[in-house]
Amino acid sequence: MTYRCAVIGNPIAHSRSPDIHAAFAQARGIDLRYDRILAEADNFATIVAQFFANGGRGLNITLPYKESAYRLCEQTSADARRAEAVNTLWQENGRLCGDNTDGRGLRHALEHEHAYPLAGKHILILGAGGAARGVIAPLCAARPARLHIANRTTAKAAAIIAAQQLHTTVPLTAGSLEDLAAAPAYDLIINATSAAFNNTAFTLPDNIAHPQTYAYDMTYGRDTPFLDWARSHHLTAHDGSTMLQAQAWLSFQQWFPA
Ligand code: ATR
C-alpha cells in the first residue's frame, strides 16, 4: 500500500521535506509518496480537507499557514496550544489533529545532534513571530536558567512572554533589539527572525556574546546576517538544518509509529 503525505505552504518549491521523509520511509520499508502542495490563503482549508478525505496519511504545514492549520484542528497537543500553530496534521477517528514539532525538534537538535545541554543556560531568542513562539515552551521544558526574547517590535516580545510565563517557572523577559546594547552576554543565541528573507538592516551589539556563546539560526540552507555576525565574532554557529531534520522525524513518528 502506498501512503500519501505532503507539505503545504507558499512558497513551497524550496522545501526539503520530501527528501527527508523519503529517507525515513526507505529506512522503515514504508511505501510513501510525499508531495509539495502550493496553497493560497483562500484554498488552504479546502486542500487540507480534500487531502484527508482522499485517504492522505499526514501533512506538514509550513509558512505562512501554521496558525491557520492550528485553527482548523479539532484536537491539539500541548505544544501546539502553546505555539498557537501546528506543523503536523493527521486524522484520528475522523477528527483533524495537530502537533507542533518545531520546538521539540530544536531542543533535540541542540541537545543531541550538537551535544549542547540547555539546562542552566542563559538563552536569548531574536524575533517574536511564529517561529519564536513555536519553540519557547519546549526550550523551557529543558530547564534553562532564563530566557530573554528581543524583538524589533518590543510589544510582540512582551505579548509572547506574558502568555508563556503562565506555563513555566523559567524566568522569561522581553525587550527591544536596542536594549541588547546594555544586556549581559548569553550562553545561547537563537535567531528566529526572518531578517535573511528581506533586505532590511540587522545589527547586533558585541556585548551579548562571550567566547563560548553558541549561535543557532533557525533559518536553513542560506547565509544569514545572524550567521555572518556570529562567525565574525568567532562563535560556534549552526544553521537550522538539524532542527529541520529533527522536527521532520517527530512528524514521521506521529504518522508511522514504530
Ligand atoms: P515567522 O513566522 O517566521 O516568525 P514573522 O511572524 O513574520 O515570521 O516574524 C518575523 C520576525 O522577524 C519578527 O519578529 C520580525 O520583527 P518584527 O516583529 O519587529 O516585525 C523579525 N524581523 C524581520 N526582519 C527583521 C530585521 N531586519 N531585523 C530584526 N528583526 C527582523
UniProtKB/TrEMBL annotation:
Residue ranges of the TM segments: none
GO terms, biological process: amino acid biosynthetic process; aromatic amino acid family biosynthetic process; chorismate biosynthetic process; shikimate metabolic process
This enzyme's EC code(s): 1.1.1.25
GO molecular function list: NADP binding; shikimate 3-dehydrogenase (NADP+) activity
EC top class named in words: oxidoreductase
PANTHER family given in the database record: BIFUNCTIONAL 3-DEHYDROQUINATE DEHYDRATASE_SHIKIMATE DEHYDROGENASE, CHLOROPLASTIC, SHIKIMATE DEHYDROGENASE
Source domain of life: Bacteria
Pfam families, A to Z: Shikimate_DH, Shikimate_dh_N
Gene Ontology annotations for the cellular component aspect, listed alphabetically: cytosol
InterPro entries: Aminoacid_DH-like_N_sf, NAD(P)-bd_dom_sf, Shikimate_DH, Shikimate_DH-bd_N, Shikimate_DH_fam, Shikm_DH/Glu-tRNA_Rdtase
Protein name: shikimate dehydrogenase (NADP(+))
Keyword Ribosomal protein applies: no
Pathway entry: Metabolic intermediate biosynthesis; chorismate biosynthesis; chorismate from D-erythrose 4-phosphate and phosphoenolpyruvate: step 4/7
Residue span(s) of domain Shikimate dehydrogenase substrate binding N-terminal: 7-89
Keyword field: Amino-acid biosynthesis, Aromatic amino acid biosynthesis, NADP, Oxidoreductase
Domain Quinate/shikimate 5-dehydrogenase/glutamyl-tRNA reductase: 117-195
Recorded catalytic activity of this chain's protein: shikimate + NADP(+) = 3-dehydroshikimate + NADPH + H(+)
